[in-house]
Description:
The structure is a single chain. By secondary structure, the chain is an alpha+beta fold. The protein has a single domain, classed as Outer membrane efflux proteins (OEP), CATH 1.20.1600. It has nine helices and six strands. The chain has helices at residues 6-21, 38-48, 50-69, 111-177, 183-216, 241-247, 252-274, 311-376, 382-417, and strands spanning 34-36, 76-82, 97-106, 225-228, 279-288, 293-301. The strands form two sheets. The chain has a four-stranded antiparallel sheet, with no helix packed on it. Strands 1-4 form a two-stranded parallel sheet. Strand 5 and strand 6 form a beta hairpin. The longest helix has 67 residues, at 111-177. It starts with 5 loop residues before the first helix and ends in a 14-residue tail after the last helix. 29% of the residues are buried.
Amino acid sequence: xxxxxxxxxxxxxxxxxxxxxxxxWAADASxxxxxxxxxxxxxxxxxNNPALAASRYELTGAQARILQAGQRLNPELSLELENFGGxxxxxxxESLETTLAFSQVIELGGKRxxxxxxxxxxxxxxxxxxxxxxxxxxxxxxxxxxxVVVAQQRVQFAQENAALAQKTLDAIVARVKAARSPVAExxxxxxxxxxxxxxxxxxxxxxxxxxxxxxxxWGRVDAEFDRATADLFAFAPLESYESFAARVERSPDLxxxxxxxxxxxxxxxLAQAQARPDISLSIGVRNLQESxxxxxxxxxxxxxxxxxxxxxxxxxxxxxxxxxxxELAASRTRMLGTLFALYRETLxxxxxxxxxxxEALPLARDALxxxxxxxxxxxxxxxxxxxxxxxxLALGESxxxxxxxxxxxxxELERLxxxxxxxxxxxxxxx
Length: 431
């Protein structure tokens, strides 16, 4: 499979949208089994990642804040007792006056709708933060998936190296028995085989570690899949840097600033509305104990905006709005610079991997075959044979590293632009 599969990303984007709409997270107990594709790994992580599951509750909380912001102020019920327990005519309760009143604060300036707008803008920010976290998870899973593929490739390479070391030892043992090579060469060959065996064990251990790290992204310590199916050396053509730069504007990292600007605008409008005082109306019934009569009472109150006109709150909100624009410009410049560097590094890694894979490795194999052939006929020493083997091993490791760098860098480009950059769907097992 192509390491960064376009269809896999499209599937994951659809899954992201579905998960954003979900009111709560429900864990999927199933884990990938059998041969594992990148799409399966991404889907399992999106559904079952513990950190992502916890973050989704923040979105639920933001939706609840919208509900709370839309609530009207509660009315007040008051009971007032007057003219009792005094002296003269007000002794006892004979002159008691009892007032039962109902009052309601009426908000002016559209404060309730502005609070709702503010909460909705905050919800949009939380949504973008969650989307950014999901994209971070997708990139992390891709990197760990690449780690597994690389570890599998190293295991295969270590097995081939151990087999080659065993073949060399067998040839030297035969030459020693025929008195054509000194015993010291057999000892050196056995040491080389021991090292190759140790390298093979280390490669197997690294593979198990990489498999476990990938499984942890969907909440499992033990990996239940068989192997990651991917061709590490499949490279799709990259588009131009300009086409990538055009996609940066749709990144949640920049879209967050647009949502933050809407949030700051809402804060400015709410602060301006707070400068308009609310009014309070009341109506009630008063009972006159002395005469036994009842009467209606009504009231009106409004604070006088003489001193506090929310000048500081308005200026702070306006300053935060201007700060949001400045941060957007700085973030855009920083992201474009990072994108340019990643793009160049990705191209360089691909060229390095292709050169090693298509040019250097075939030459190194030919050189080893020729050295092996010459050694068997006494034309080369064991040191020359060992050097040729080490050169092949080093070039193979370098080719794997370069291919892994390419796919990891491509994952960073995917994360930065939030869109799939690859086009072919080349599902195939490792050669």
